[in-house]
Amino acid sequence: MRKKIKILLSVVLIIVAVTIADGIYCTNVIHTTYYSFTNDKNDAAMHFVLISDLHNKEFGEDNVRLVNKIKEQNPDFIAVDGDMVTRYFEDDSVMKELLSQLTEIAPVYCCLGNHERDLADKIDFESEINSTGALLLDNEYIEFDTGNGTVLIGGMSDYPYYEYDAPDYDNDERYFWDDFKEASENQYSILLHHQPEYIGNIVTDSNVDLVLCGHTHGGLIRLPFIGGLFAPNQGFFPEYDTGQFDFGTTHMVITSGLGNSNPLFRINNCAEICVIDIN
């Protein structure tokens, strides 16, 4: 009996040690995930990087490891999908330092996440982000010239159909969304929107080609053969955790992101940048 207890304790200790080691590794090592999509609307092709959910984390001094990893990709532009700060700290210096370095690599386009929105009365994010040379797309879009044609890149700050806006949904997000859908009929379009659990409900018949999201942290703990354990707003075993999701002709990519908004480890779920090719 004593021998069995010792064996059981040894197994438990090994599992705990492996889990902690994996958590340390995944929290501090950046993996790269690749995606490729087809542009059927014009000849525009592009190669870009998606990042999200930094939450003030630094991968080396001044995020040197993260910057170098993105630079290696030689992207046409860099999409930054929100939550670069953490709502508990009125400090955006890590975000600004990173954005300043990224703008030396390629044009940088940003949208807001829920943590930025929670700090909006304390930090002027439009001014702070744009001062770095990056461009905040907050319910607006631009035409990006690829050399072989243009694509639309838009950023929507929030889901446009919250119950508190019913029944007329008279808000900036709704008007932007209607305009962006119409503009997407004849041009390839990319939408930055932080929270996938909301946008996933309305994209199917939108003409929008690609939606880029974060927010989920990949489910934080990823279980083999099951997926993410928990995501904000979705709860346990979220429908949208990380990866590619398809809605008719609209594709959605959710990045697991880079940092955490809490002290928990990422388990089986490394920090991530996404590299996306449109051909």
Detailed description of the structure:
The structure is a single chain. With 279 residues, this protein is of the alpha/beta class. The protein is built from 7 helices and 16 strands. The protein has helices at 2-28, 64-71, 93-102, 114-118, 125-130, 172-183, 196-199; strands at residues 30-37, 46-51, 77-80, 108-110, 135-136, 140-145, 150-155, 189-192, 210-213, 222-223, 227-228, 230-231, 235-236, 243-247, 250-254, 271-278. The protein has a 6-stranded mixed beta sheet with strand order 1-16-2-3-4-5. α7 links the parallel β8 (189-192) and β9. The radius of gyration is 20 Å and the shape is globular. The mean pLDDT is 90.
Please give a handful of descriptors for the protein shown.
25% strand, 26% helix, alpha/beta, six-stranded mixed β-sheet, 7 helices, 16 strands, 279 residues
